[in-house]
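Supplementary Text 2. Reproducibility record for the structural model of the 158-residue chain.

All settings were left at their defaults, and a single model was retained for analysis rather than an ensemble. We include the record here because the model underlies the residue-level annotations in Supplementary Table 4.
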Amino acid sequence: MIAVPKDANTLDVLAQRYRAAFDKVHGGREQWIEGTLELAVVMKEAKHEMPGHARFSGWLTHHNLEQLHPNDRAALVHFAEDLEGARKLLERSNSISWRVIWENRPRAAFTKNGKSGLRVNRGRKYMSGAERQKRIPTVMAHYLGKESKRAATRPYHS
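Retained model, structure tokens:
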């Protein structure tokens, strides 16, 4: 349980949860894993409340919280997207660096409903070489010796 003052706002509560999770991280391996997962959830919620890096850093400073490297912050936010998969990843890793664990994760090892839980796909469409060739901007097509229909119909302006 965390003691929170009556007049506390959401950011104050998050700060208390951050401290509690960060204290757990300094325990044994099991405590480190639990603290990491709790910290991941807090980081994701805090990022939702304060999406900007500067505002988030200001919140950490204002509440006198431990500063984390942006890469560690990002790793924790990703862990929060699939806590079950993150737990397995943390249990199997010999590292205690959140960034290193995230960067060295197996890309499709953890699945959730048939989809990879820890792979981040930002909605990109994967294209074949022919599809990519069609998307070459007019200026680049000229330099590559590929004359596009648009380039052929428009005069060159300098």
